[in-house]
Amino acid sequence: MWEKIQQWDRELFVYLNNLGIERYDAFWIFVTDPRHWIPLYLLFFLFFFLAFHWKKASFSSLFLLACVFSTWSFTNLVKGIALRLRPNNTPELTDLIRILQEPTNYSFFSGHSSTSFAATTFVVLILSQKTRWIYLAYIWPIVFVTSRIYVGVHYPGDIIVGMIVGIILANLFYFLYVRSGRRFI
């Protein structure tokens, strides 16, 4: 059963990766680099300081950082246990796919996916009572994780599991945030 799921995951990856168009490669390589999203990260913190007094904004910012760091740490722990090769490092796929990046660490599950969905979900949970527009922030992780398939470094299963883990951890940190920050909230 597990082999069948992995086969479907590989086949879906090959299909999606081959939908790529060469003239858009530079865009997707740009999008997949977390450093290019620094202005968005700063905007998230700015939203906290615009929506709340400085104590609650600082408290929210610290919890956001803790949520993202914990998600990143958990992701790397699982990668070290699962040891799933990335598509770009899988010999039987190299002739079938477009490879635009060549990281050498492991694939399962996507750190881009888990951390971006954890950050976005945490921010949305905190700010959704202030503005419904905050849900547009989900555009970022969707584009961000799509780039991982496009550049040839993650299977769809890696992305989906990363999304789920990020959302779960964000909800856990939000629960802890509400419980521990009652005097700020």
TrEMBL record:
The chain crosses the membrane at residues 37-54, 61-85, 105-127, 134-153, 159-178. The keyword Transmembrane applies. It comes from the Bacteria. Residues 60-174 form the Phosphatidic acid phosphatase type 2/haloperoxidase domain. Keywords: Membrane, Transmembrane, Transmembrane helix. The keyword Transmembrane applies. InterPro entries: PAP2/HPO, PAP2/HPO_sf. Pfam families: PAP2 (PF01569). This is Phosphatase PAP2 family protein. It comes from Christiangramia aestuarii.
